[in-house]
Design a protein that fits this description.
Number of domains: 1
Shape: elongated
Number of strands: 3
Radius of gyration: 19 Å
Order of helices and strands: HHEEE
Largest sheet: 3 strands, antiparallel
Structural class: alpha+beta
Number of helices: 2
């Protein structure tokens, strides 16, 4: 392998490492959001109010160090007597200079 080939390979590895270090924590936080929503909906009774669900999510998010969304960002509905909580948010990750990566996350307690 020539020196230029080695430099290109090193650049590619460095770029992949940078992406991994920036993106993986965001996916971990997304999984925590989904788990928190499922915990909150499992603990909620059929007559639990929307406000109570949002407050319960905020408490759970505080415990799990979730900063991406709050209880106010949740869409709470009832389907067939069950409480269904949905969410959707974007996360912009600055990579370098004026280059950013935009991740779209969405989920529901129904899934």
């Amino acid at each position: 392998m020539s020196l230029s080939g080695l430099l290109v390979a090193a650049f590619a590895v460095a770029l992949l490492a940078l992406l991994g270090m920036k993106v993986i924590p965001e996916y971990i936080e997304y999984r925590q959001v989904v788990a928190s929503i499922k915990k909150v909906t499992a603990a909620a009774g059929p007559d639990t109010s929307v406000r109570q669900i949002r407050e319960a999510f905020d408490r759970q998010a505080n415990v799990d160090y979730i900063s991406a969304i709050t209880g106010a960002d949740l869409d709470v509905t009832k389907e067939g007597g069950r409480i269904v909580v949905s969410f959707s948010y974007e996360k912009r990750i600055p990579l370098f200079a004026n280059v950013s990566l935009l991740l779209d996350f969405s989920g529901s307690s129904k899934e």
